[in-house]
Amino acid sequence: MPRASSKRKSSAPQNPPAVKSSNARSAGKAKAKEIENFFDKYANGGIIDPDGIVTLCKDLELEYTDVRILMLAWKLKAVKLGYFTQDEWETGLKTLQVNNLSKLKKAISELEKEVRTPPNFADFYSFAFRYHLTEEKQKNIDIETICELLNLVLGPQFRRQVDLLIDYLKVQSNYKVINLDQWLGIFRFCNEISFPDLENYDETQAWPLILDNFVDWLRENHR
Amino acid sequence: MVQRRLIEFDEGWEYIQKGIGKLKRILEGLREPPFSSEEYMALHITIYNMCSQNTPNNNSASCGSCEMIRRNIALPLTLPHCSKKRRNIPGFDEFGLACFRDLVYDALKHKAKDAVIDEREREQVDRALLANVLDIFVEHMLQDTSSYYSRISTNWILKDPCPDYMRKAEECLKKERDRVSRYLQSNGEEKLVEKVQHELLVVYATQLLEKEQSGCGALFRGNKVDDLSRMYRFYRTIRKGLEQWLMHSDSICCKEQAGAGPHDNYMEYVTNCFMDHSLFQRALKEAFKIFCNKTVGGFSSSEQLATFCDNILKKSGNEKLSDEAIEETLEKVVKVLVYISDKDLFAEFYRKKLAQRLLFDRSRTLARKNQTGFEKYLRYNKNAHAGIDLSVTVLATGFWPSYKSSDLNLPSQMIKYIEMIKCVEVFKRFYETKTKHRKLSWISSLGQCHINAKFELKNIELIISTYQAAILDLFNASDRLSYSQVITQLNLTHDDLVRLLHSLSILYYKILIKEPDTKSISRQNEGIKIPLPPVDKRKKFVEDVDKDRWYAIDAASVRIMKSRKVLGHQQLVSECIELLGRMFKPAVKAFKKRIEGLISQDYLERYPENPNTFKSLA
């Protein structure tokens, strides 16, 4: 799993190098133009802002809270929550080999498969956290957002764990925010710990305290 | 295969019978010519045929006994067919044994058993005979012994107190050993004794040890060294029992009441009745650790121990405790302190107690000198009139433990305060004449004031704390003051002020009348001493200590990680505990909490390849 502080650019999977024939270059130029037009359709003042994303979602026939939008953001290596810059848009769409709406629609369902493969998913998972850090030097995300995010990102895969964890996060009072380490710990927990018996959970290991507490709570309330 | 003539059982049996008759005679040593080969073959074939022909004429089962007999005459040719082909029919050896069991053993075993029981119940029996017989019956006898003792122990456990039970059990074991040595083979002895021990001691161990009136705990309480040693001797031999016993005595030790005494007592037990068994010393240590670190009624032992010391040292003033006695008791305390893991907590409590003791010391040996000096100073300096009587206890910082105190605001522009401030100023000046370069810091939270209050009916002397006096003093100037006015004028914390106002307006003596959010002076009721509800200082101490511990854990972790760069979680924990163990034992949860903090603060990070390992970023 990549470090929290590592450069985001390096964390996405490598794409095949662009083909460099002159033909391809002119075709590429045309494509680049199309991508630019595609961008302009949603952009407002040189950037796709939240309104633009809502419109885009409507065109893609997706809810804007759909996990696939988050996946698209991951693929575009978007930095700021709710915005796609022109640069992000163009590089991203090029790697997706997409230049219009219908292609993007198709690519997004492919993208979901790509994200669900293990190494990508781990990267996507930590991206989801970092993407929601909106303030300068912000390191934590409030519990409420975390619950929604968990539901969105891990929900389909680990329904029971996520439901119980959200229940717990809402009743506990020790934590108001979650940091990246805890966030990654949750992912590791869902992947490694047999559920619901929690047989292989070992408190003497370096699990974040919040998970120790969660396990205590589970053992008390759900046995 | 040629179809053989079918032999009917009766017909065959008659023939075989003759053979058996002959065989019997041979076996019994009568004069009888040996079997000729023809005779033998004929017999064999008949039996073989009878045994191997198809059902319903298969007679192998019924012929088993003849087979056995034939085999005994030493012709091992017989009946592989019979025993191999038809598995449901017992083989020879088995069959023979079965016969023996049914005919001889069953008939005898009850008698043998009865004989043993009779012997147990003290009837004279022929031991030599019994010994011979019992050789065969070892297994059976063991079983029987079990049930015998199981029966009587059930009986005893119900009606006998623990020491009696143990005495009886000891007696039984002794006799059983003795019995065994006389008529059982040596390998039987161990087994038998084991059985008896199991029935008498292991099965009822818990019940026995926990007997309320007479169990282990009672023995400890009653200093019954004899019985305890017996108990120990029993359970020493039984491994599992010993462990159980240890656990039990642990918990018993734990239940014992606090004080400095128990350690000595138990030490004595260990050396005297438990033969200094190393396990016991360890157990005692463990037990003591557990017992010392338990909280009794919400008070941690650290605190209790501090209070205990305080009481001893306080007593030295009025009750005549000799210096030696005090010294001795304190030495015991130190011994116990070894087991306390929260030494930092003890230190904190002790410091507070020391502070109080120094200030409230009735003999005031430390303060007296100052006081007489101050009085003299006042007498000779007419212009330095203090206005009110003031006695000050001055302690050099060397005596003075660290004492956090929120201090009263005594601003000089506040006229109301003038008297108190004047006092303080006068004393300061006096102090400066005596010493140079010494700074006085006032701990008004520990002060006490005697105030003459003029109530409507009569004047009453109030004995109150300095803080309370300060509040009342405010109301000398105005009749009504709001809470916020009081708090800004006195510079007290919210918690303190609420407590103070509460004591003056809501508790027994309502000196101030409280209105929804205004307070005004009125005179009513008579009061002498206004009790101030004690702050729950304990909670605050514990919080303070906890905070100090956080820093200690942080510092230790960072230090360890700086030198090690990369370290597994568990190693980090154990190294930290080692580093900090002298002062306290960090709880694992607290530790994890700090690690979480250190990760957020970028001192540490989880090692990407192994989430149980940390890497130093500092």
Automatic annotation (TrEMBL), chain A:
Protein name: Defective in cullin neddylation protein
Function: Neddylation of cullins play an essential role in the regulation of SCF-type complexes activity.
Domain named DCUN1: residues: 30-219
Biased composition regions of type Basic residues, renumbered to the chain: 1-10
Gene3D superfamilies with a match to the protein in the record: Cullin, PONY binding domain, EF-hand
Source organism per UniProt: Citrus sinensis
Region (Disordered) residue spans: 1-27
TrEMBL record, chain B:
Species of origin: Citrus sinensis (Sweet orange)
Protein name: Cullin-1
